[in-house]
Structures are given as C-alpha cells and as structure tokens.
# Entry
Amino acid sequence: PGHCIGPTINQRIGSGKQRLDSLRNDEKRLEKLLKDVGRSVADIPSTSSGTPFGKLANKLPWPVQRRIAARFGSPREGSVRWSGVLLDVPAGTPVRAIHPGRVVFADWLRGYGLLMIVDHGGSYLTLYGQNETLTREVGEWVATGDIIARVGDSGGSDRTGLYFEIRRAGVPVNPDKWCNSRVTLPPIASRQ
# Structure
C-alpha cells in the first residue's frame, strides 16, 4: 500500500505547482495588458466632471452589493495573493461603474474571464472580471452607476462572483480603502 501514496502526493504537488504557475502567468498577462492599455490611452483626456477619482478615498460605491469572498492581499494559492477582491454575488447580477470613465478593455483574458477595464483618469483604473456578459465596448464613456457587465464565473473560477480591482499607476490598491458600503449607486435606469 505504501507505493500508492507516493504518486498521489506527487500528483497533488505537481497539480498545485501547475496551478501556481498558471496564476502567476495570468497575473503577468494582466500586467502586460495594463501596460499596453496605458500606452494606448495616455493621450485620452478625462472628460469626467466632478471630483477626480484620486480624491474619493472611502467615498465611492461598490460595483455590486459588498459580500467579500476573498480579501485584497489575502493568500490565493502558495505565494500568490489577491490583487483585488472577490465579491460573492449571484450570476446575472448587474455590475455597475463606480465612477465616470472610459472603457479601455472589454474582452476575455485568461484567468480573469470576461474582463472590463475602465480608465477614470489620473492614472486610476477599475477592473471587473469573471463576468458572464459585458455590456459596453472599448472607447465608450460610462457614468457612475451605468451597467457595464453581468456577474458570472468565467475565467476558470470555481465560484460565481465579481472579481474587482482598483489600480493606481498600474499598482493594485485595496478597494476597501476606496469603496464604502454606505455610498449607494443611483437607481438603475429602465433603458438599461
């Protein structure tokens, strides 16, 4: 019986290493995408009116009702940590823009599924991943509260929910320091 245990443990270790390598590669893909996006939108002026994103710490709404399944910075697997939060919400839930901006990416990205990235100017981006559908296209301007996607489990996740990140100059920042559950989004317009 002893010889049966070895391969099983080795297979698990191998499988864990593959998952870890895969997660690291997914993160590298996202980093490259963000650099490419940054170069392509560097010359786009932000026409959002109102307070700049950078001055709204703890004053922004969450894109969906906040029920955190995975916290920012918590261990994801091995040495890989969460660069955003995973919000536990059912499939089909509307995902809403938390601040005015321009859609700079709306497509599938390995490890993140159907991903929407909104540029809010001042080097701030919000990322909304694992969606089942995206409702906006690259180049479109969005207002606070606009429906930009619907929650799903795309990207190889084993659970339904919204993966949400905020980045400043390409670096992930803790959404808990920016979004506040007491700040509510406007009612959903009937045209959406």
About this structure: The first strand starts at residue 68 and ends at 70. The chain has a mean pLDDT of 82.
